[in-house]
Amino acid sequence: MSQSASPSETVAETVDSRRVARGLGSTILARMGAVVEIVAQPLYVLMFGLAGYGMYAVMWATVNLIENVFDLGMTSAMQRTVPKSATDAEAAEALRTALLFGVGPCVVVAALIWLYAPVLAPMLNVAVEDEHLLVPAVRTFVWTLPLWAFVEIATSALRARMVFGAEIRLRIVWEQIIRLGLASLFFLAGYGLFGLFVAHILSLIVTAALCIRLLRRYYRLDLLFRGEWWGECARHTFWAGLSILPSNIVARIFSDSPALILNQLLPGAAGARASGLFTIARKLSSVVQLVRIAFVYVMAPLTASAERTDRAQVNAIYSYAVRVIVAIAFPLAAVIAGGRYSILSLFGKQADVAQAAVVILVFGRAFEATLGISLPVLQVIAHYKHQITASLFGVVVAVLVGREVIGPLDPLTGITLAMAVGFVVMATIPLVQLLFTERLHPFDRRFPFVAAKVLAVAVLGGVVAEIATALPDEIAIPTIVVIALASIWTSLRIALPLDDRASLGKMSRHLRLVPPGTPVH
Fold first, then answer.
1. pTM, entire model
2. Is 127 a member of any domain?
3. Which domain holds residue 181?
4. Which tens digit of pLDDT belongs to each residue from 103-137?
5. CB half-sphere exposure, 190, CA atoms < 13 A
6. Is 8 within 8 Å of 82 (Cβ atoms)?
7. Alpha carbon of 438 to those of 83, 314, 369, 434: distances in Å?
């Protein structure tokens, strides 16, 4: 089999803003599947109804929560160990450890859920017409648990090799094209909602096969069955995973537990619809979250590499990342919030009640994106014990806020607000920890000027988007998309320093982010 050279066997590359921008561009393309997913949601609601979509959303949220517990943090561990591996054998040892401890427990849990499905399935609130699907749907869908764990670990292994664009085919193919295509075919064939569950698991099987093919290019898979099974690299990977596990679990709790809580708070179809509405709001906010995820994927391995050679490089890329995130996330959040009426119309009139949830989540995700980039930096350079603090505080704050607001507010808005406050707090604490323990912070003398200009652009974009909602929906929605793109371009062009824009390479010239003749990196 053909194998690429291990990154550790090549000359070390300086980790600077240009290196971050290169990885970021590939990763954003890879994560564009999340944007396509948003487009697919109205089709799912149209085909299966809001209550049916809510049942699917609750079950997928449950799988994600369980996977984040029983993968033992292996989806993140390799970001810390593989970039520091000296040989291909060590990298294979880390991958083997992650697969054993990440996928193995998920297989056991899936088997137990399959066995006890008749007891567990009725705990979900669904529409009366969907009750007969509960047990067979659970017994089918539960096998997405080990499949999803494998896909998460495999794509994490690729990112650890600084192969940021490898998820393009995987994420877009499985998340959207195959799943939506199969679900549509099953729906037309008369399989109804059950066809959506079958389409999901089939798409994951295809994705897992593609993952193996890609892993063969960047890892020596023949070494998975050789060498030490519990060597230093394996132990380091295992303990790195356990140290990151609490923060991973809490992040997933903030993302998916509201759908489960709403499903349990409201009986029958009302619970299923509420779960669907929260999932719709979360999917819309994921456009903003995409900015943070893209940077997190890039920053973790690059920080590990930079820390090995020069701490000053870490500080430089940390500050650069925050400036670019602010310039993209806040104008985008403001436009989505301003255009929420027209955007939610895609899901029918029953989705109007999610307006407040959309506003809360998009701005919550913007703040999380800005502050939360500290977490991957902390994960790879600080002591393991520092990574648990943010998770604990985030959960406590979310619970306390929830107790105060869920009564006065409706359940959907109250739970959304509690979770948003919690994950913003959780994103802030690593920033404070890095400041006091590592003397690192991203707010250099240029940041206040960047923030002020971004704020002006965001306010203008949000106001124009809200005005655009007065147009007919078929005109308003594409207009809002154009406003979002124009706001982001304007923010990048006038808010970022010239060297930040130049670091985007040829793209900065093509988009006219830099004056003609400006040297680009």
1. 0.78
2. yes
3. 7-507
4. 999 999 999 999 999 999 999 999 888 899 999 99
5. 0
6. no
7. 21, 11, 21, 5
